[in-house]
Amino acid sequence: MKFTKMQGLGNDYVYVNCFEETVKDPKRTAVLVSDRHFGIGADGLILIQPSDIADCRMDMYNMDGSRGAMCGNGIRCVGKYAYDHHIADKTKISVETLSGVKHLEIKAVNGKAQAVTVDMGKPVITSDLPEEIVAEGTRYEFTGISMGNPHAVVFMDAIEELDLKQIGPGFEMHLRFPDRTNTEFVQVIDRTRIKMRVWERGSGETMACGTGACAAAVACVLAGYTQNRVQVDLLGGTLDITWDREKDTVYMTGPAVEVFSGEWDDRAD
């Protein structure tokens, strides 16, 4: 199986061009390739497949083999791969996901995609504003927002010292979230910038989460903390998020990087 390792702000996945390759058991493959000691090392597996309704289809699996509906950093990398590898020779690309068709705009330099803007769609409020929850014995307030996948946004005064390995599973596995949830821990810096750490369902803490950054930005606007456009600082870098209130859609802009390519032989496992 030929693969390409790509990352968006350190949120890294193994990508397979299924226009040319076949992955018979993607759940098993996701677990194997994601292992950072015995595999390739990644937050999961993303298959780039043919689509009847878009330029290509993104099929995403977390490192534990569970299937994901949408990944903001992942879809930017899909856009870069599709553009750079001539699956779609144009700067406006459509990608089918389990959360619907997403529209991407490629910012290219010397024929290679350097940054990608994604129309992430309409945010959906899924909780009271705010809603209380007890996780790992501590009471928190969160804002529930879906960006095609579930998010719980928690505002805090400081996030650097948080023990996410202790706190994160308490949110992810809480009975309040029957399908599990991604959780964003957010510190507001000013009206144009926030800091965020994220615990992703099925993957744990990651360097960045595109849908989570969108959810956090929307929650900040709803709470009156920021303007509609905000810079989101994550462990892996910064995303530019804009909530267009008139169109009621969220736009995300950030980098996408191809790290290396190789070949994986899972017959040895």
List the helices and strands and how they pair.
Layout: E1 2-8, E2 11-17, H1 26-34, E3 44-49, E4 56-62, E5 67-68, H2 72-84, E6 92-97, E7 100-109, E8 112-121, E9 124-125, E10 131-135, E11 138-146, E12 150-155, H3 164-172, E13 182-190, E14 193-200, E15 204-206, H4 210-223, E16 229-234, E17 237-244, E18 249-255, E19 257-263
Task: Explain the overall architecture.
- The protein is of the alpha+beta class and 269 residues long.
- Helices cover 17% and strands 46% of the residues.
- It contains four helices and 19 strands.
- The protein has a 19-stranded mixed beta sheet that branches.
- Strand 12, helix 3 and strand 13 form a beta-alpha-beta unit.
- The longest helix has 14 residues.
- The radius of gyration is 18 Å and the shape is globular.
Helix content: 10-25%
Strand count, sense and barrel status of the largest sheet are: 19 strands, mixed
Shape: globular
The share of residues in extended strands comes to over 45%
> What is the string of helix and strand elements?
EEHEEEHEEEEEEEHEEEHEEEE
Distance between the termini: 13 Å
Which structural class matches the secondary elements?
Answer: alpha+beta
Rg from alpha-carbon coordinates = 18 Å
Low-pLDDT stretches: none
Average pLDDT number: 96
